[in-house]
Amino acid sequence: MRQSENISLKNYNTFGIDIRADHLFEIEKEEDLLMLDPTIFINKWMVLGGGSNVLFGSDYHGTVLWMNNKGKQVVKETITDVIVEVAAGEVWHDFVMWTIDKGYNGLENLSLIPGNVGASPMQNIGAYGVEIKDCFAYLHAYSIETGKIETFNFEDCAFGYRESVFKNKLKDKYIITTVAYRLKKEANLQLSYGAIQSVLSDMGIVHPKARDVSNAVIRIRQSKLPDPAKLGNAGSFFKNPIISQQTFLPIKEKFPNIVHYQLENGHIKLAAGWLIDQAGWKGKKVGACGIHVNQALILVNYGAAKGEDIMNLSKLIREDVFNKFGVELHCEVNFVMD
Question: What is the pTM of this model?
Answer without folding.
Answer: 0.90
